[in-house]
Amino acid sequence: PEEMVDMTPMVQTVKEGSIASSVLLTGKVTANQEQYIYFDGTKGDLQSILVNVGDQVTAGQAIVQYSSTEAQTAYDAAVRAVNKADRQLNDLMTNGVTIDTTGDEEADSKSASQAQRSLDTQVGDLRDARADAVANMEKAKALLDATTVKSSTDGTVVEVNKDVSKSTTGTNQTLVHIVSNGNLQVKGELSEYNLAHLSVGQEVTITSKVYPDKTWAGKISYISNYPKDAQQASASPTSGGGTGGTGAKYPFTIDFTSEIGELKQGFSINIEVKNNSKAILIPVSSVVTEDGKNYVWKIDEKGKAKKVEVTLGNADAENQEVSSGLIKDDKVIVNPTADLKDGQEVKNYEEIN
């Protein structure tokens, strides 16, 4: 018989890890917080915008001022009403009500109890009137405060529009747009397919065409369970019941876990989501397929070759996930040959990492 050329079996210990399969997404760098201040005609006439484009503002800083004359007048009147109620109440509590005594003990006692009831009633009425006056004052104060619109975030003014029309209704007219400093995030939209394969907490690598040699790290912090446009999720005759076209899109947010560096708000970026599920990994070359089933040759503790059926998961160019049939630290033959026999002793083999 023709002599077989022996090929030294290469053996690798089964390891746990993640294959390089990844999901690719696109997104935009956006501000974590931003504030739009819209024109509100119910607050009165616009008196002044107190900031300019490029200004740095702090939370609580006055940004827009409406004319406060009417609101100030109403507040002043409400304060006077509270003060008046206080004076009346104070006078009543100090001086009480006067009664004329007759010297008739029974009649005087009756008059005194009637006077006390009258006093109690008047005090109750005045306390109610004071409570109403205080409520009016608080309402007037809120309306006065509302004539000054303040910033809700530390940030930079990126837009100021002083030309607003009071007659325009139903449209939001931006007076001032403020974007928070630092705290940038990535926002984008997922397809329904990717929604099923991604989860909050997964790590991502971010790249930008502007800086091709740089990468940033991030983490998925939010994935919506609802499509951006609810109509996309409902059937429509034009899209063949929602199955055609691009399908529903689900908003997601990524927080940076590395320094933002040169990235700027508005940059379009690419995102690679790492597969963080751990699995048993073997080299792709270890797998032998026969009659639609998958096998690998492993070397048991006695040094004998054993053929075992395996269930496969995902694969990349080098590694193959095995979901059943092998456990960590099993030794598998990376380059199995057709002449291997079950139970054959493997005397010499080379272990590779």
SSE diagram, text form:
Blueprint: E1 10-13, E2 15-17, E3 23-31, E4 34-38, E5 46-49, E6 56-57, E7 62-66, H1 69-95, H2 105-146, E8 148-150, E9 155-160, E10 174-180, E11 184-191, H3 192-197, E12 203-208, E13 211-223, H4 230-233, E14 249-256, E15 268-273, E16 279-283, E17 288-290, E18 293-299, E19 305-309, E20 311-315, E21 319-324, E22 331-333, E23 350-352
Parallel strand pairs: 1-23
Antiparallel strand pairs: 1-22, 2-16, 3-11, 3-15, 4-10, 5-7, 6-9, 7-8, 9-10, 11-14, 12-13, 12-15, 13-14, 16-21, 17-18, 18-19, 18-22, 20-21
Helix pairs in contact: 1-2
Structure description:
- With 353 residues, this protein is an alpha+beta fold.
- It has 4 helices and 23 strands.
- It has helices at 69-95, 105-146, 192-197, 230-233, and strands at residues 10-13, 15-17, 23-31, 34-38, 46-49, 56-57, 62-66, 148-150, 155-160, 174-180, 184-191, 203-208, 211-223, 249-256, 268-273, 279-283, 288-290, 293-299, 305-309, 311-315, 319-324, 331-333, 350-352.
- The strands form 5 sheets. Strands 1, 17, 18, 19, 22 and 23 form a 6-stranded mixed β-sheet that branches. Strands 3-11-14-13-12-15 form a 6-stranded antiparallel β-barrel. A 4-stranded antiparallel β-sheet has the order 2-16-21-20, with no helix packed on it.
- Residues 1-5 and 235-245 have low confidence and may be disordered.
